[in-house]
Write a structure and sequence with these properties.
Layout lengths: L1 H15 L3 H10 L7 E9 L20 H7 L16 E6 L12 E15 L14 E5 L9 E6 L10 E8 L8 E6 L3 E15 L5
Antiparallel strand pairs: 1-8, 2-7, 3-6, 3-8, 4-5, 4-7
The structure holds calcium ion (CA) (2 copies).
Length: 210
């Protein structure tokens, strides 16, 4: 009961000074975020290996069989700027300083992320055809409702597409899906991912940041 009373008193004080947003988050995860922290923008440009050490299995839906995940988790075929059709793409963004990333909790998300992904069609076709046209991006978080863990998903080329056509999409991801320190994207098989960037506003304890 004492904690609840203290939280209520803090809430009143913080709302009076205009910091109601951070207080909302403190209540949401039940942890004490009242220590001073420094706001900064974290920008992660996806690059490098996409398989094995990169993918966080917990972000992926549970009906993805072990064999299917193993095929996806292959750095020889899961590539940026893929040129071959029939190869899925997946990538896990990891946020330094989050719980689970280095054993310490010293940073937290204070404003949802902006995810920007650029795609290239490898096999043109009319709407809904089994080409690039029917390919879907799914954004996955282990904190999104199971068993799919899909935060959001979208058909990339709903009006059909020509081979070689490119497109850039932007997605907004709420903080509640980022609290585990990672977020994954999955893009279907006839579309290449040219680039992917995630940007979020975070707050880090000043003497414990890594
Ligand atoms: Ca295909
Ligand atoms: Ca396809």
């Amino acid at each position: 009961m004492k904690h609840i009373l203290i939280a209520a008193a803090l809430l009143t004080g913080l709302m009076a000074t205009g910091f109601s947003q951070s207080q909302e988050e403190r209540r949401e995860d039940g942890k004490d975020h009242s220590l001073p922290c420094k706001q900064e923008r974290l920008v992660i440009q996806a690059h490098g290996p996409t398989g094995k050490a990169n993918l966080d299995h917990s972000d992926f839906w549970t009906n993805f069989t072990a064999a299917e995940f193993s095929a996806l988790d292959n750095p020889a075929t899961n590539l940026f700027n893929q040129t071959a059709i029939n190869q899925h793409f997946a990538y896990t963004f990891r946020f330094p300083g989050w719980p689970g990333s280095n054993g310490k909790e010293c940073c937290r998300c204070i404003e949802g992320a902006t995810l920007t992904v650029t795609f290239k069609a490898l096999q043109g076709g009319p709407p809904q055809s089994a080409t690039s046209a029917n390919d879907v991006i799914s954004i996955l978080s282990s904190l999104a409702p199971g068993p799919s863990h899909v935060v959001t998903s979208q058909i990339l080329w709903p009006s059909g597409v020509k081979t070689g056509q490119t497109e850039t999409l932007t997605f907004k991801i709420p903080c509640k899906y980022l609290a585990n320190g990672h977020l994954s994207i999955f893009v279907e098989d006839d579309t290449a991912v040219v680039s992917a960037e995630l940007s979020l506003l975070r707050c880090c304890l000043e003497d414990d940041r890594k």
